[in-house]
Amino acid sequence: MIEDTVLVNEWHVAARSKDVVEGETLAVKILGEDIVLWRNGFELMAWKDICIHRGAKLSIGKVIGDCIQ
Q1: pLDDT tens for residues 19-38?
Q2: For residues 41 and 65, what is the distance between their CA atoms, to the nearest angstrom?
Q3: Which residue segment(s) compose the domain that 13 sits in?
Q4: Residues with Cβ < 8 Å from 66, sequence gap 6 or more?
């Protein structure tokens, strides 16, 4: 995480739309934060790359329906 928070609440490019493929996850880092990108139908999802239940990276999981497992 960055110390200077001036850029935190701004828009940031994470990936090109065509790089986020239906049924797959894409791990990216934005301002030092691990983020997982994935598609839920026509929506593009961006979450912190951590499972709160297991402590594992979501980006190593599989997209099943509208969830990452």
Answers
A1: 999 999 999 999 999 999 99
A2: 9
A3: 5-57
A4: 40, 41
